[in-house]
Amino acid sequence: MTLMHNYARLPVAFSRGEGVWLYDTEGHRYLDALAGIAVVGLGHCHPAVTAALQSQASTLLHTSNLYQIPLQEKLADSLCRLSGLDAAFFCNSGAEANEAAIKMARLHGHQKGIAEPQILVFTQAFHGRTLATLTATGNYRIQEGFAPLVPGFVRAPYGDLATVRGLLAANPSIVAILVEPIQGEGGVRPAPQGFLAELRALCDTHGLLLMLDEVQTGIGRTGSFFAYQQLAGVVPDVLSLAKGLGNGVPIGALLARKSAADLFGPGKHGTTFGGGPLVCAAAQAVLDTMESAQIPAQAEKMGALLQEKLRHALEQHPDVQDIRGMGLMVGIELHQKPEHLVERALAAGLLINVTADKVIRLLPPLIISEPEIDLLVSGIVRLLEPSS
Ligand SMILES: *Cc1c(COP(=O)(O)O)cnc(C)c1O
Protein backbone atom coordinates (compact mmCIF):
# COMPACT_ATOMS: atom_id res chain seq x y z
CA MET A 1 0.00 0.00 0.00
CA THR A 2 1.37 3.38 -0.97
CA LEU A 3 -0.47 5.44 1.64
CA MET A 4 1.56 6.88 4.51
CA HIS A 5 0.96 5.21 7.83
CA ASN A 6 -0.25 8.20 9.84
CA TYR A 7 -3.70 6.69 10.49
CA ALA A 8 -4.46 3.46 12.36
CA ARG A 9 -7.47 2.58 10.27
CA LEU A 10 -10.15 0.05 11.13
CA PRO A 11 -10.50 -2.82 8.63
CA VAL A 12 -13.68 -1.63 6.96
CA ALA A 13 -14.57 0.52 3.95
CA PHE A 14 -17.96 2.08 3.39
CA SER A 15 -19.55 2.37 0.01
CA ARG A 16 -22.83 4.14 0.75
CA GLY A 17 -24.56 6.14 3.44
CA GLU A 18 -28.09 7.27 4.23
CA GLY A 19 -29.19 9.16 7.34
CA VAL A 20 -27.53 7.59 10.39
CA TRP A 21 -26.62 4.43 8.45
CA LEU A 22 -23.47 3.41 6.61
CA TYR A 23 -23.14 0.35 4.38
CA ASP A 24 -19.80 -1.38 3.87
CA THR A 25 -18.46 -2.83 0.65
CA GLU A 26 -19.95 -6.20 1.59
CA GLY A 27 -23.40 -4.76 2.23
CA HIS A 28 -23.34 -4.85 6.05
CA ARG A 29 -25.16 -2.00 7.77
CA TYR A 30 -23.72 0.13 10.60
CA LEU A 31 -25.34 2.64 12.94
CA ASP A 32 -23.02 5.63 12.68
CA ALA A 33 -22.74 7.20 16.13
CA LEU A 34 -19.71 9.26 15.11
CA ALA A 35 -20.95 11.03 11.96
CA GLY A 36 -17.48 11.22 10.42
CA ILE A 37 -16.23 12.89 13.64
CA ALA A 38 -19.06 15.40 14.15
CA VAL A 39 -19.16 16.28 10.47
CA VAL A 40 -22.29 14.73 8.99
CA GLY A 41 -24.81 16.46 11.28
CA LEU A 42 -27.67 16.18 8.79
CA GLY A 43 -26.88 12.51 8.22
CA HIS A 44 -25.25 10.87 5.24
CA CYS A 45 -26.29 12.12 1.82
CA HIS A 46 -28.92 14.55 3.05
CA PRO A 47 -31.06 15.34 -0.03
CA ALA A 48 -30.82 19.13 0.39
CA VAL A 49 -27.01 19.01 0.49
CA THR A 50 -26.85 16.53 -2.38
CA ALA A 51 -29.12 18.73 -4.51
CA ALA A 52 -27.07 21.86 -3.74
CA LEU A 53 -23.83 20.06 -4.64
CA GLN A 54 -25.22 18.56 -7.83
CA SER A 55 -26.60 21.86 -9.01
CA GLN A 56 -23.46 23.82 -8.13
CA ALA A 57 -21.17 21.18 -9.66
CA SER A 58 -22.83 21.67 -13.02
CA THR A 59 -22.70 25.49 -12.73
CA LEU A 60 -19.35 26.61 -11.31
CA LEU A 61 -16.79 24.93 -9.03
CA HIS A 62 -13.98 27.39 -8.42
CA THR A 63 -12.86 30.88 -9.29
CA SER A 64 -10.50 31.84 -6.37
CA ASN A 65 -10.70 34.74 -3.97
CA LEU A 66 -9.32 37.11 -6.58
CA TYR A 67 -12.97 37.66 -7.49
CA GLN A 68 -16.26 38.23 -5.72
CA ILE A 69 -18.06 35.03 -4.73
CA PRO A 70 -21.75 35.76 -4.09
CA LEU A 71 -22.36 32.36 -2.48
CA GLN A 72 -19.56 33.08 0.00
CA GLU A 73 -21.06 36.49 0.84
CA LYS A 74 -24.47 34.92 1.40
CA LEU A 75 -23.01 32.23 3.64
CA ALA A 76 -21.15 34.90 5.65
CA ASP A 77 -24.43 36.80 6.10
CA SER A 78 -26.15 33.65 7.36
CA LEU A 79 -23.36 32.78 9.82
CA CYS A 80 -23.16 36.35 11.13
CA ARG A 81 -26.94 36.51 11.59
CA LEU A 82 -26.92 33.17 13.44
CA SER A 83 -23.91 34.01 15.64
CA GLY A 84 -24.35 37.74 16.22
CA LEU A 85 -20.79 38.29 14.98
CA ASP A 86 -19.89 40.76 12.26
CA ALA A 87 -17.71 39.20 9.56
CA ALA A 88 -16.51 35.85 8.23
CA PHE A 89 -13.38 34.41 6.62
CA PHE A 90 -13.58 31.00 4.94
CA CYS A 91 -10.95 28.27 4.86
CA ASN A 92 -10.89 24.50 4.43
CA SER A 93 -10.56 22.91 7.88
CA GLY A 94 -10.70 23.43 11.60
CA ALA A 95 -6.95 23.77 11.96
CA GLU A 96 -6.95 26.50 9.33
CA ALA A 97 -9.76 28.33 11.09
CA ASN A 98 -7.67 28.27 14.28
CA GLU A 99 -4.54 29.33 12.39
CA ALA A 100 -6.50 32.37 11.19
CA ALA A 101 -7.61 33.03 14.78
CA ILE A 102 -4.00 32.82 16.01
CA LYS A 103 -2.85 35.24 13.31
CA MET A 104 -5.71 37.60 14.22
CA ALA A 105 -4.70 37.48 17.91
CA ARG A 106 -1.13 38.38 17.02
CA LEU A 107 -2.30 41.33 14.90
CA HIS A 108 -4.43 42.42 17.85
CA GLY A 109 -1.36 42.28 20.10
CA HIS A 110 0.90 44.18 17.72
CA GLN A 111 -1.80 46.82 17.31
CA LYS A 112 -1.57 47.31 21.09
CA GLY A 113 2.20 47.67 20.83
CA ILE A 114 3.01 44.22 22.22
CA ALA A 115 6.08 42.87 20.41
CA GLU A 116 5.69 39.19 21.39
CA PRO A 117 1.98 38.55 21.89
CA GLN A 118 1.00 35.38 23.77
CA ILE A 119 -2.20 33.33 23.56
CA LEU A 120 -3.59 31.57 26.61
CA VAL A 121 -4.62 27.96 25.92
CA PHE A 122 -5.59 25.00 28.11
CA THR A 123 -4.59 21.53 29.17
CA GLN A 124 -6.26 18.68 27.21
CA ALA A 125 -7.24 21.17 24.48
CA PHE A 126 -7.35 20.14 20.84
CA HIS A 127 -7.02 22.79 18.16
CA GLY A 128 -5.57 20.93 15.16
CA ARG A 129 -2.42 19.41 13.65
CA THR A 130 -0.65 22.30 11.93
CA LEU A 131 2.43 23.56 13.77
CA ALA A 132 0.74 26.48 15.51
CA THR A 133 -2.43 24.57 16.32
CA LEU A 134 -0.61 21.49 17.61
CA THR A 135 1.36 23.84 19.84
CA ALA A 136 -1.94 25.24 21.13
CA THR A 137 -3.15 21.65 21.64
CA GLY A 138 -2.65 20.39 25.18
CA ASN A 139 -1.58 16.85 24.39
CA TYR A 140 2.06 15.81 24.50
CA ARG A 141 1.46 12.83 22.19
CA ILE A 142 0.31 15.19 19.42
CA GLN A 143 3.35 17.45 19.90
CA GLU A 144 5.97 14.73 20.32
CA GLY A 145 8.59 14.76 17.58
CA PHE A 146 7.67 18.17 16.23
CA ALA A 147 9.96 20.44 18.21
CA PRO A 148 10.71 23.25 17.86
CA LEU A 149 7.11 24.21 18.60
CA VAL A 150 5.70 27.65 17.84
CA PRO A 151 6.37 30.30 20.49
CA GLY A 152 3.63 32.53 21.84
CA PHE A 153 1.43 30.17 23.87
CA VAL A 154 0.84 30.03 27.63
CA ARG A 155 -1.14 27.18 29.21
CA ALA A 156 -3.49 26.89 32.18
CA PRO A 157 -5.43 23.89 33.50
CA TYR A 158 -8.89 23.79 31.86
CA GLY A 159 -11.40 25.26 34.30
CA ASP A 160 -8.81 26.72 36.67
CA LEU A 161 -9.71 30.41 37.03
CA ALA A 162 -7.20 31.12 39.77
CA THR A 163 -4.32 30.09 37.49
CA VAL A 164 -5.80 32.08 34.60
CA ARG A 165 -6.06 35.21 36.76
CA GLY A 166 -2.50 34.74 37.99
CA LEU A 167 -1.13 34.33 34.46
CA LEU A 168 -2.99 37.40 33.21
CA ALA A 169 -1.75 39.50 36.12
CA ALA A 170 1.85 38.37 35.62
CA ASN A 171 1.98 38.48 31.83
CA PRO A 172 0.83 41.64 30.05
CA SER A 173 1.81 40.07 26.71
CA ILE A 174 -1.23 37.76 26.76
CA VAL A 175 -3.57 39.13 24.08
CA ALA A 176 -6.16 36.39 23.61
CA ILE A 177 -7.68 33.26 25.13
CA LEU A 178 -8.36 30.29 22.84
CA VAL A 179 -10.72 27.72 24.35
CA GLU A 180 -13.23 24.98 23.50
CA PRO A 181 -16.62 25.32 25.25
CA ILE A 182 -16.59 21.53 25.54
CA GLN A 183 -13.28 19.76 25.03
CA GLY A 184 -13.95 17.14 22.37
CA GLU A 185 -10.76 15.17 21.72
CA GLY A 186 -9.81 15.87 25.33
CA GLY A 187 -12.60 13.58 26.53
CA VAL A 188 -15.98 15.34 26.05
CA ARG A 189 -15.35 17.71 28.96
CA PRO A 190 -17.76 20.63 29.26
CA ALA A 191 -16.23 23.77 30.78
CA PRO A 192 -17.13 24.02 34.47
CA GLN A 193 -20.18 26.17 35.26
CA GLY A 194 -19.34 29.86 34.95
CA PHE A 195 -15.81 29.29 33.59
CA LEU A 196 -16.42 30.77 30.14
CA ALA A 197 -18.44 33.71 31.45
CA GLU A 198 -15.55 34.55 33.76
CA LEU A 199 -13.09 34.25 30.85
CA ARG A 200 -15.34 36.66 28.94
CA ALA A 201 -15.21 39.12 31.85
CA LEU A 202 -11.42 38.78 32.14
CA CYS A 203 -11.03 39.39 28.40
CA ASP A 204 -13.11 42.57 28.76
CA THR A 205 -11.04 43.76 31.72
CA HIS A 206 -7.68 43.09 30.07
CA GLY A 207 -8.58 43.94 26.46
CA LEU A 208 -8.06 40.36 25.23
CA LEU A 209 -9.83 38.51 22.44
CA LEU A 210 -12.03 35.63 23.61
CA MET A 211 -11.59 33.06 20.83
CA LEU A 212 -13.93 30.07 21.03
CA ASP A 213 -12.96 26.95 19.12
CA GLU A 214 -16.36 25.55 18.15
CA VAL A 215 -15.00 23.37 15.36
CA GLN A 216 -16.58 20.34 17.05
CA THR A 217 -19.33 21.92 19.19
CA GLY A 218 -20.69 24.28 16.51
CA ILE A 219 -23.46 23.92 13.90
CA GLY A 220 -26.18 22.49 16.11
CA ARG A 221 -24.16 19.73 17.76
CA THR A 222 -24.81 20.78 21.37
CA GLY A 223 -28.47 21.73 20.93
CA SER A 224 -28.04 25.32 19.73
CA PHE A 225 -26.33 26.65 16.62
CA PHE A 226 -23.24 27.39 18.72
CA ALA A 227 -22.53 26.04 22.19
CA TYR A 228 -21.91 29.50 23.67
CA GLN A 229 -25.54 30.41 22.96
CA GLN A 230 -26.53 28.20 25.90
CA LEU A 231 -24.02 29.83 28.25
CA ALA A 232 -25.19 33.04 29.90
CA GLY A 233 -22.87 35.99 29.41
CA VAL A 234 -20.61 34.35 26.83
CA VAL A 235 -20.27 35.91 23.37
CA PRO A 236 -16.88 35.41 21.74
CA ASP A 237 -14.87 38.00 19.83
CA VAL A 238 -13.64 35.28 17.49
CA LEU A 239 -15.27 31.93 16.65
CA SER A 240 -13.74 29.07 14.67
CA LEU A 241 -15.95 26.55 12.86
CA ALA A 242 -15.48 23.63 10.50
CA LYS A 243 -16.58 19.99 10.96
CA GLY A 244 -20.41 20.20 10.76
CA LEU A 245 -20.51 23.26 8.53
CA GLY A 246 -20.35 21.44 5.20
CA ASN A 247 -21.95 18.10 6.16
CA GLY A 248 -18.97 16.35 4.58
CA VAL A 249 -17.44 18.85 2.18
CA PRO A 250 -14.30 20.52 3.55
CA ILE A 251 -15.07 24.02 4.76
CA GLY A 252 -13.95 25.98 7.79
CA ALA A 253 -14.81 29.48 8.92
CA LEU A 254 -13.56 32.15 11.23
CA LEU A 255 -16.18 34.63 12.46
CA ALA A 256 -15.30 37.76 14.40
CA ARG A 257 -16.54 40.98 15.89
CA LYS A 258 -15.93 43.98 13.67
CA SER A 259 -12.93 45.35 15.63
CA ALA A 260 -11.15 41.99 15.39
CA ALA A 261 -12.27 41.24 11.83
CA ASP A 262 -10.95 44.61 10.67
CA LEU A 263 -7.42 43.48 11.62
CA PHE A 264 -7.47 41.29 8.50
CA GLY A 265 -6.86 44.04 5.96
CA PRO A 266 -6.09 43.22 2.30
CA GLY A 267 -3.13 40.84 2.02
CA LYS A 268 -3.09 39.83 5.70
CA HIS A 269 -4.45 36.32 5.16
CA GLY A 270 -5.73 34.13 2.39
CA THR A 271 -6.28 30.71 0.83
CA THR A 272 -6.74 29.49 -2.72
CA PHE A 273 -9.67 27.17 -2.10
CA GLY A 274 -11.36 28.77 0.91
CA GLY A 275 -15.01 29.64 0.48
CA GLY A 276 -15.33 28.42 -3.10
CA PRO A 277 -18.73 28.17 -4.75
CA LEU A 278 -19.09 24.39 -4.33
CA VAL A 279 -18.49 24.20 -0.58
CA CYS A 280 -20.42 27.41 0.08
CA ALA A 281 -23.45 26.02 -1.75
CA ALA A 282 -23.27 22.90 0.44
CA ALA A 283 -22.81 24.87 3.67
CA GLN A 284 -25.69 27.18 2.77
CA ALA A 285 -27.92 24.13 2.28
CA VAL A 286 -26.76 22.88 5.70
CA LEU A 287 -27.61 26.14 7.46
CA ASP A 288 -30.93 26.55 5.63
CA THR A 289 -31.96 22.98 6.48
CA MET A 290 -30.81 23.33 10.10
CA GLU A 291 -32.93 26.46 10.44
CA SER A 292 -36.06 25.35 8.62
CA ALA A 293 -36.17 21.92 10.26
CA GLN A 294 -35.04 23.27 13.66
CA ILE A 295 -32.27 20.72 13.84
CA PRO A 296 -30.44 22.28 16.83
CA ALA A 297 -33.61 22.00 18.95
CA GLN A 298 -33.97 18.42 17.73
CA ALA A 299 -30.37 17.74 18.79
CA GLU A 300 -31.08 19.19 22.22
CA LYS A 301 -34.13 16.95 22.64
CA MET A 302 -32.49 13.79 21.33
CA GLY A 303 -29.31 14.52 23.27
CA ALA A 304 -31.25 14.81 26.52
CA LEU A 305 -33.00 11.54 25.69
CA LEU A 306 -29.71 9.82 24.88
CA GLN A 307 -28.10 10.93 28.14
CA GLU A 308 -31.20 9.96 30.14
CA LYS A 309 -31.34 6.48 28.58
CA LEU A 310 -27.59 5.97 29.00
CA ARG A 311 -27.81 7.01 32.64
CA HIS A 312 -30.76 4.74 33.23
CA ALA A 313 -28.95 1.78 31.66
CA LEU A 314 -25.38 2.40 32.84
CA GLU A 315 -25.31 4.58 35.94
CA GLN A 316 -24.79 1.58 38.22
CA HIS A 317 -22.42 -0.17 35.83
CA PRO A 318 -19.12 -0.99 37.57
CA ASP A 319 -17.01 0.11 34.56
CA VAL A 320 -18.73 3.47 34.12
CA GLN A 321 -17.30 6.49 35.92
CA ASP A 322 -19.27 9.34 34.38
CA ILE A 323 -21.78 10.16 31.65
CA ARG A 324 -21.70 13.75 30.43
CA GLY A 325 -22.13 16.06 27.48
CA MET A 326 -24.39 18.58 25.85
CA GLY A 327 -26.88 17.90 23.08
CA LEU A 328 -25.62 15.13 20.82
CA MET A 329 -22.02 15.38 22.04
CA VAL A 330 -21.91 12.75 24.74
CA GLY A 331 -19.08 11.04 26.59
CA ILE A 332 -19.16 7.89 28.71
CA GLU A 333 -16.03 7.87 30.84
CA LEU A 334 -14.89 4.43 31.93
CA HIS A 335 -12.68 3.64 34.90
CA GLN A 336 -10.15 1.95 32.65
CA LYS A 337 -9.04 2.02 29.05
CA PRO A 338 -11.30 -0.55 27.35
CA GLU A 339 -9.83 -3.42 25.33
CA HIS A 340 -10.79 -3.46 21.64
CA LEU A 341 -14.09 -1.71 22.32
CA VAL A 342 -14.19 0.14 19.00
CA GLU A 343 -13.38 -3.08 17.10
CA ARG A 344 -16.06 -5.03 18.97
CA ALA A 345 -18.56 -2.24 18.28
CA LEU A 346 -17.67 -2.36 14.59
CA ALA A 347 -18.21 -6.11 14.52
CA ALA A 348 -21.64 -5.49 16.10
CA GLY A 349 -22.57 -2.90 13.46
CA LEU A 350 -21.99 0.18 15.60
CA LEU A 351 -19.53 3.01 14.89
CA ILE A 352 -18.25 4.72 18.03
CA ASN A 353 -15.00 6.33 19.10
CA VAL A 354 -12.89 6.28 22.23
CA THR A 355 -10.97 9.45 23.03
CA ALA A 356 -8.63 10.48 25.87
CA ASP A 357 -7.94 6.74 26.40
CA LYS A 358 -11.13 5.84 28.24
CA VAL A 359 -13.99 8.07 27.15
CA ILE A 360 -16.51 6.58 24.73
CA ARG A 361 -17.45 9.50 22.50
CA LEU A 362 -20.84 9.59 20.81
CA LEU A 363 -21.42 12.16 18.06
CA PRO A 364 -24.33 10.76 16.05
CA PRO A 365 -25.98 12.67 13.21
CA LEU A 366 -28.30 15.33 14.65
CA ILE A 367 -31.23 13.86 12.72
CA ILE A 368 -31.11 10.63 14.76
CA SER A 369 -34.59 9.37 15.72
CA GLU A 370 -35.76 7.96 19.04
CA PRO A 371 -35.81 4.33 17.80
CA GLU A 372 -32.23 4.85 16.56
CA ILE A 373 -31.26 6.29 19.96
CA ASP A 374 -32.67 3.10 21.51
CA LEU A 375 -30.57 0.98 19.15
CA LEU A 376 -27.49 3.00 20.05
CA VAL A 377 -28.07 2.66 23.80
CA SER A 378 -28.76 -1.07 23.64
CA GLY A 379 -25.66 -1.49 21.46
CA ILE A 380 -23.48 0.31 24.02
CA VAL A 381 -25.00 -1.67 26.90
CA ARG A 382 -24.24 -4.94 25.10
CA LEU A 383 -20.65 -3.84 24.48
CA LEU A 384 -20.14 -3.16 28.16
CA GLU A 385 -21.56 -6.50 29.28
CA PRO A 386 -18.83 -8.44 31.11
CA SER A 387 -19.11 -11.56 28.93
CA SER A 388 -18.81 -9.80 25.59
C1 LIG B 1 -11.35 18.57 14.82
C2 LIG B 1 -11.00 19.79 15.57
C3 LIG B 1 -10.06 20.71 15.10
C4 LIG B 1 -9.25 20.46 13.83
O1 LIG B 1 -10.05 20.43 12.71
P1 LIG B 1 -9.45 19.80 11.34
O2 LIG B 1 -10.54 20.06 10.34
O3 LIG B 1 -9.18 18.36 11.59
O4 LIG B 1 -8.22 20.57 11.03
C5 LIG B 1 -9.83 21.85 15.82
N1 LIG B 1 -10.49 22.09 16.97
C6 LIG B 1 -11.40 21.23 17.46
C7 LIG B 1 -12.11 21.58 18.73
C8 LIG B 1 -11.68 20.05 16.79
O5 LIG B 1 -12.56 19.18 17.30
Automatic annotation (TrEMBL):
Any idea of its EC number? 2.6.1.11
Cofactor comment: Binds 1 pyridoxal phosphate per subunit.
A GO MF annotation of the entry reads: identical protein binding
Pathway this chain belongs to: Amino-acid biosynthesis; L-arginine biosynthesis; N(2)-acetyl-L-ornithine from L-glutamate: step 4/4
Kind of enzyme, top EC level? transferase
List where in the cell it is found.
Answer: Cytoplasm
Residues annotated to bind N(2)-acetyl-L-ornithine: 129, 271
Q: Which residues bind pyridoxal 5'-phosphate?
A: 94-95, 126, 213-216, 272
| Cellular compartments per GO CC | cytoplasm
Subunit and partners = Homodimer.
Q: Which family does it belong to?
A: Belongs to the class-III pyridoxal-phosphate-dependent aminotransferase family. ArgD subfamily.
Name of protein: Acetylornithine aminotransferase
